[in-house]
Amino acid sequence: MVGPLKKLGLILLGALLGFALTLNFSAVADKAATPAGSPLPIEDLRVFSEIFGRIKSDYVEPVDDHKLIKEAITGMVAGLDPHSAYLDQEAYKELQDGTQGEFGGLGIEVTMEDGLVKVVTPIDDTPASKAGIKSGDYIIKLDDAAIKGMTLNDAVKRMRGKPDTPITLTILRKNEPKPLVITLKRAIIKMKSVKLKELDPGYGEIRISQFQEHTGEDLANAVEQFYKDNKDQPKGLILDLRNNPGGLLNSAGGGGGRISASGVPGGLHRRSGGRCQDAFDGNS
């Protein structure tokens, strides 16, 4: 294992905050979230019950109780912020597949913004990156299906599928006068979340594209490899988190802990928008 990062300055590119989707695999209902003795909003629940009953009795077509409740929960969670979503058992399984680093799809990290699917970042060496899809693109149609009205989970489910099957994306891009129509084929996406790149002699860069199940371990291996390549006398290391949408909370914390526990003299620096500032003292 790598010893203390003596005489090694570390620059952190991007922010570790605001994950597009961060998981902790803990109970959804946390008792600490509701203060003891806090009353339930009985009047609001009464209104909810009344509307539920009206839909059941007056809607033009029969409706399924389970579907109504599920949609209500989905809307409630989605209304918190653009990055929150309710996952049923099937959706949760699909999300686990993604964070384990292998699935059939296009290779893009996405979030929901203003009712459209926004590309956070295309993953390197995937159909999406090869087709020229860019960070900041807005997907407005998947084949002939409009995104408006879909949840993020619905859109992700449509984009995933068997390898070599085609899908057509209609995209809005800044400074493009007309929507772009891009057809690409799905592939097995094997996400390598940690990549080490040598810069000038003695300097390296580690890019973390997403926090997956084995990111902490892979990060430790990358740092160890960086030391070996520089005969235990490296000069500087950049940790690049730009366009990282998040992932497993435990993995993110574990990866950061492996760096901060190494004892970077002078602290860990965060760089954003061309500015560099101290984030914390690596020796504290």
Features:
284 residues, Transcription Regulator spoIIAA, Pdz3 Domain, six-stranded mixed β-sheet, six-stranded antiparallel β-sheet, 7 helices, 29% helix, 28% strand
Helices and strands, with pairings:
Blueprint: E1 9-13, E2 21-23, H1 42-58, H2 65-78, H3 89-99, E3 102-105, E4 108-113, E5 116-122, H4 127-130, E6 138-142, E7 145-146, H5 152-159, E8 166-172, E9 180-185, E10 187-190, E11 194-198, E12 203-208, H6 215-229, E13 236-240, E14 246-248, H7 249-260, E15 268-272, E16 275-280
Keywords: Hydrolase, Protease, Serine protease
Protein name: Carboxyl-terminal protease
GO molecular function, one term: serine-type peptidase activity
Describe the structure.
The protein has 284 residues and is of the alpha/beta class. Among the domains are: 9-24 and 192-280, Transcription Regulator spoIIAA (2-Layer Sandwich), CATH 3.30.750; 102-190, Pdz3 Domain (Roll). The chain is built from 7 helices and 16 strands. The strands form 4 sheets. A 6-stranded mixed sheet has the order 11-12-13-1-15-16, with helices on one face. Strands 4, 5, 6, 7, 8 and 9 form a 6-stranded antiparallel sheet that branches. The radius of gyration is 22 Å and the shape is globular. Residues 1-7, 14-34, 262-268 and 276-284 have low confidence and may be disordered. Residues 92-160 form the PDZ domain. Keywords: Hydrolase, Protease, Serine protease. This is Carboxyl-terminal protease. GO terms for molecular function: endopeptidase activity; serine-type peptidase activity.
